[in-house]
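Why Na(+)/H(+) antiporter NhaA? Reviewers of the renewal asked for a concrete example.
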Amino acid sequence: MPSTSTARLFGRGSWAETSRIADILRKETVGGALLLVAAAVALVWANSPWGGAYETLRDTRVGPASLHLDLTLGTWAADGLLAVFFFVAGLELKREFVAGDLREPRRAALPIAAAVGGMAAPALLFVLFNLGRDDDALRGWAIPSATDIAFALAVLAVISTHLPAALRTFLLTLAVVDDLLAIVVIAVFYTDDFSAGSLLLSLVPLAVFTVLVQRRVRSWWLLLPLAALTWVLVHESGVHATVAGVLLGFAVPVVRSAAAGGPEAGPGLAEHFEHRFRPISAGVAVPVFAFFSAGVAVGGLSGLTESVTDSVAVGITAGLVVGKAIGITGATWLVSRFTRAELDEALGWPDVVGLSLLGGIGFTVSLLITELAFGLGTPTYDHAKVGILSGTLLAALLATVVLRLRNRRYKRIHEDERADVDRDGIPDVYQRETVDDRADHRPDRDGAPPPGRAPGGSAEG
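Here is what the prediction returned.
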C-alpha cells in the first residue's frame, strides 16, 4: 500500500525555484528602496513652497500631437513606464505556471485563491464605506485591491526579518497574480472611448512579435519597434496601454524547444528578457511613476484632516489594512478547509496574518487605478492618494509588529534553509525528500526532470 502524507500549505518548493526567486526578490528590494525615496521626494516637494513647480513638471506635455501622443510626463510614466512593469509581471506569471513550481495545480491553488480573496474583500469594504454618495466615489472600488511587492520587500529589508523562503515565494506569486487581476480590472472597468479598430490593429504587430520570439529572435531592432507599435495601438483603442505590456509578456516562450536543447540547456528567452528588463522596471519605471504620482499637496493640518476623514480615503485605508488581512487569511483558511491541507509544521496562522497585512501594502497599481477612476487634480483624487499612503503605512506598521514577534522562529527556519553540511552548493533541507517531494519532482519515464526544470540549475524561463 503506498505511503500517504498530508498536503502542506507554504511548503518549500524546489531549490532551483527558491534560488531563482531569491535573486528576483533581491532586485525588487533595491527597487523598493528607490520607490520609497521617489515617493518621499514627491511628497516633500508637493507640500513645499515650490509645490507649483512639481505640478508644472508633472503636467508638462511631451510627444507628437499628430499621433495623439502629446502626453504629460505623469501620463507617460503611468501609461508608458508601467507597461514595462506589467511586461515583467507577465513574464514572471507565465514562467511560474509553465515551468515553475506553480505548474502543479495544488501549489497554484493557494496564491490564486489568496489573490482573489485579497482583491474581493478590500473592494467590498470600499463599497460599503461609500454607498449612498451621489458622486463618482464608487468608481474607486478597485483602488485598495493591489499589493506592491517592491514596497513590501523594502519594509521587510528595513525590519530585517528572516522571512522563510516559502513565505517570500508566496508573497511574490501573490503580488504577480494580483497584478494580472488588476490589469484585467483596468481593461474591463476603466476603459473609456473604446475603439475596436485600433485594438484589432494592435494584434498585427503583436502577432509578428509573437512569431519572432517563438522563433527565439532576440534582435532589439526588430522586437522593440513591434512592441512600441503594439503599445501605441492599444493606447489609441482606449484600453489602458499597460495591457500591451502583459500581452507582450505572455507572448514570450518559457520552455526551450527540442531544437534549442530543451529545458536542460539552461535559461530561455523569457528568463533572458526578465533578467534584462526587471532592473529597468524596478530601478527606473516604478520609481519614476511613484515620483510623478505620489506627490499630493495635503494643504496643512486642516487639509490632511479633511482628506483622511473623507469616505474614499477611509474606504481605501480600511480595504488595505482590514480587507487584505481578511481576504488573504480567509482564502488561505478556505483552501485549507476544502483541500484538507495543513500549514507547514514550522508555521502557524499568525504567520499567515502577518503576511496578509504585508499584502496590504498597496502603492504602484493603486495609484494607477486612482488616476483612472477620478482623474488628475480632482479633490477625490487627492483624498484617494492620502488614503493609499495612510493605508500602506498602517499595514506596514502592523505587519512589522506581527512579523517581528515571529522573527525568532523565522531565524531558526532561515538557518535550517542555509545549512549545507555536505558542501555541494544545495542546502541540505532541499535534499531531504518527503513523500510529497517525490510526488512533486518525480522524473518522467525517461529519467528526465519535470518540464522546465533543469537538474541543479534554473529552469527555462
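The chain has one domain: 9-191+240-417. This is the kind of structural detail the renewal will allow us to pursue systematically.
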